Every structure is written in C-alpha cells, then in structure tokens.
Amino acid sequence: NDLGDTGSIMEKTNTGAVVKSFDKASYQLIIDRIDDIVSIPQSHIREAAFDYFDLQKGIEAYLKIYREVLS
C-alpha cells in the first residue's frame, strides 16, 4: 500500500500506480489502468528515479535545509 512518499512520487511523476488499500475496488482501479501502466517508458521511470533518489541531489537538498535552519 501507500507507505512513505512512494505513492505521491509515483503520481507526481506518472511512473506507476500504488494499491491504496487491500480491497476489491482498489485492485480494480489498478487493473483498469494496467495498459497505461505497462506502457510507461522505462527511460521515463529511470529518469524520475534519478530525480528523486540521486545521492548528490539529496545531499544538496539537506544542506539547503540545514543552512536555512541554522541561519
């Protein structure tokens, strides 16, 4: 299910789908979108992953926050 930021990242970047609860209606929503989901280009998914999980970008983001807090 949607733990942490994974669901919001996937929705924002259009890189997949998250089953939000374990019931028939939630599964059906994913099944109805399966053709769209499997047609997402792998290059798009990879690019989005680098945008969100790149180590250097993470370091820079945390440094910015720390500098703002400490100033």
Notes on the protein architecture:
The protein is mainly α. Helix content is 72%, strand content 0%. The chain has helices at residues 6-13, 24-38, 42-53, 55-70. The protein is elongated. It starts with 5 loop residues before the first helix and ends with a helix.
Taking all Cα atoms into account, the compactness measure Rg is: 16 Å
For this structure, the quaternary state is single chain
The number of helical segments is 4
Proportion of beta-strand residues: under 5%
Spatial separation of the terminal alpha carbons: 39 Å
N-to-C series of helices and strands:
HHHH
Q: How is the main sheet built?
A: none
Give the mean pLDDT: 91
Which structural class is indicated by helix and strand composition?
mainly alpha
Structure summary, number of beta strands: 0
Share of helical residues: over 70%
Indicate the topology.
Layout: H1 6-13, H2 24-38, H3 42-53, H4 55-70
Quick overview:
72% of the residues lie in helices and 0% in strands. It has 71 residues and is mostly helical.
What keywords describe this structure?
single chain; 71 residues; mainly alpha; 4 helices; 0% strand; elongated
